[in-house]
C-alpha cells in the first residue's frame, strides 16, 4: 500500500495539482483507517521545531535512561529523543558479546555464580561540587544486589561490585556531592548472621526480631572512579525505597524513604500500608564516615564479588571480598534520625538549595515538604517523639515545612527546575504537577500518557538544574504508538518547562522499563569520547599486534588461535588440526586504528554469541565444536567494500585424528610481482 | 661581504631548519566516509599525517585498488635528505662566516637544483605508486591510474585529493630569497669597493 501511495505521489508530482489532490485524499482516507485514538490535546502545532534536530546536527543533551528489567542503560539525545546507544551492564548482550566473551564474563560473576541479568533501576552521574561532571554513571542492580560504574569516555561498563548483607538493592546508588560515597540501601530486609556473615536462617515468623536492613557506603577513588565498600550501617528491618543526598547546608546528609515500618512479612500490600506514617531516614554520612574511621565499626565475615575491567587489557577480573565493616546506629549518636512521613513514601527529593526535602507519599493525599533548618533545630531542641532501635524519631510538626494540598493522586517522584519550582509525577491521576517550593501552591498540570513513574530534569537532582526540559517516563503505553501485539515498549514524553506553563513536545519509545534517568549537557561528555583504542597501549596478554605474529597453538585439549583482523581479512583465515573434543579460544585483535571500524567475529555453531572488537582491542570467544567438519567464520560488522569476503575456515577433524596444527592466510605466488617491487603477496 | 649580507646568508642557512620543524608537502584526502579528512604529511626525514595511524589507514584504503603499501622505511630519500639539508645549512653558515660572496651564487644554484630534484623524485614516486598496481587488486577500473596530484586537486574514485607544499618548503624558498638578496647586496658593495679602489 505504501508503495502504491508512493507511486501515486510520484505520478501526482509529474502530472500536476489535480492528481496531487486526489492522491492526497487517498492518503487521508488511508490514514483514517490507521488513525490513532491517543490523546493529542494540548500539543501545539509548532512543537516540531523544538525537538527537530536536523540531519547532521547533534542533540543538546545526553540522557541516560535505565532499562529496568533489561539490565541495560539506554542513551537518548535530547530534545530529539533519538536512541544513541544501549550500554549493557548487568545483562549479556549478544550484539557486542558483552557477558559472552572471555574478557567480559567475569563482570557478571557474583557470590551466586554467573548472573547474566539484573533489574537496573537508577542511573546517577558522578559529581563534582554538587554538579554532574560527566565522568561516570553509577547504576544499581536491584535483584542480585550490585552497583556498577559506566565510564563515559567509552560508554562501557567498567566495574560491578556486589553488595553484601543486602537483599534487593533498590535504594541505590546515590552519590554525595563529590562522589565521596555512593550510598546503597536494601529494599528487602533479611535476617543477618553477624557471626558467620551474610544471610542467616530464621523463621519468617521471626521477621520483627531478626530481620535487618543495611545501607552501604561505597568509597569512590577521586581520579579513577574505582569503588570500594568502606562500611555499612545496619538499620531497622524496614523496606528502604529511595534516597537522595542533601546539598548546600544539607550536604553532609543523605535521606532515605522507608516503608513497611509495620514490619509485615506477608501480604505487604495491606500489611505494609497500615501505618499513617512511615519514616524518612536521615543519615549524616560525614559523621558515619568519622565513626567508622574512629573505630566504632565492627567487622563481620562476608562473601561478595568485585569485578573490574582493566584499562589496558580490556579484560575483567573478579576478586572475592571476605570481610565487611558495619556500624550500629544505636552506638553512633547523632548519625541517624527518623522523620515521620505519610504514607508508604516512594521518592525523596532535595531541592537545589538543600533546604527542602520533598517526600512523595504514594498513598498520601498531600505532598509533605520537610525543612532542613527545622530539622537542625529539632535536633538541638530534642523535639523527639520516641525512638526506634535507638534511633530518635522527630515530632512531625517540628520538621515539617508544609504540605502541598491536593497535588494529585499517587505522587511518586519530584525534580526541580532551579527557578524555585518543583515537578511531581502523579501515577494514579496520570499527570505531572508543577508547584512552587516556597509557597507550596500548584501552578500547572500536564496530563501524561499513562501513569508516570519517574521524571527527570537534566541536573534536576543537583544544585543547578538545566531547567529547560523535563522527561517523564510512563509505565503504561497502550495506544500511544502503532500497536505491536500484547507487549509494548514503554513511552517517555518530553516536556518544555522553560515557560510558565508546561508544553508537551514529544513522545518517544524507550527500551524495557526506565525507572529513572540522568541528563547532562552534551559538552560535558562528548569532547571526552574515545574514538578508538591505541594498539600500542593494548596490554592484553593474547593480543597480536602484527599479522606476522598470528598463531595457532595447542596445549592439551585447548587450541588457542591468536588472530588479527583488519579490512578485509583475518590472519590466519585457514586453520587445521582442531579435533572434536577440543576447546578453541579465538583471541581476535582488531588492528585498525581509525574511528568506527569495528570488526566482528562469529563462527558457525558457537553456542555463546559473536563478539564485536573495537579498533585496537582484543576479544576472545570460546568455541567447542561438537562434530567434525569445516566451519566458516566471518566478520559480522559490515566493515568495508570487501566485508563479505572477510571470512575464513577452520577444519575440525574427528577425535584422535593425526591432522597437525596448520594455519595460513594468503598463498605464496609462484610468479614474482611485476617491476620487482617488494612482494605484496598474501597479506598486505 | 658586509654585515648585512653575512646576516642574510646566515638567515638563509637557518631558514632551511624549517624543514625539520614542519612537513614539506601535504596531501589531503576527502571522501564521503571521511568527513574529518585524511592528511599525509611528507617531511624531509619522515612521513606522518593528521593522526598517528594515517599511513596504515592510507594503506588500507589503497590496498583495494592494488597500490603497494607505503612505508617510511622504503624511501632511502628520507634517510639521505636530512644530511643534504644539514650540509646546506653548514655550508651556508660557513659562507656567511667566511664572507666569500661568490660562493653564495654556487650555494643558491646547488640548492635550487636540490629542490628541483626533490620535487622530481616526489613526482616519480607518485607515478610509481599510482600506476604500479597489483594485478590481483580487488577493485580494478579499466584504464584508471591513481597518480595523486603533485600540486592541486584531483578526483580519484571516491576520494578528492589535494596536494600542496607546506611550511617546510617555505624554508627552502626563504633560504633562496635571503641568499639571493645577500648575493645582490654583497655584489653591489663589492662593485662599490672596486670603484673606490680604481678611482
UniProtKB/TrEMBL annotation, chain A:
Top-level division of the source organism's lineage: Bacteria
Compartments where located: Cell envelope
InterPro entries: Copper_CuA (IPR001505), Cupredoxin (IPR008972), N2O_reductase_N (IPR011045), Nitrous_oxide_Rdtase_Sec-dep (IPR026468), Nos_propeller (IPR041114), NosZ/Cyto_c_oxidase_sub2 (IPR051403), WD40/YVTN_repeat-like_dom_sf (IPR015943)
EC number assigned by the record: 1.7.2.4
Entry keyword set: Copper, Metal-binding, Oxidoreductase
Pfam family, one: nos_propeller
GO molecular function: nitrous-oxide reductase activity
Main location: other
Annotated region (Disordered), positions in chain: 661-684
SUPFAM superfamilies: Cupredoxins, Nitrous oxide reductase, N-terminal domain
Keyword Oxidoreductase carried by entry: yes
Protein name, per record: Sec-dependent nitrous-oxide reductase
Species of origin: Pontibacter populi
Gene that produces this protein: nosZ
Automatic annotation (TrEMBL), chain B:
Transmembrane segments: 80-98, 105-126, 166-185
Keywords per UniProt: Membrane, Transmembrane, Transmembrane helix
Name this protein carries in UniProt: Copper chaperone NosL
UniProt lineage: Bacteria, Pseudomonadati, Bacteroidota, Cytophagia, Cytophagales
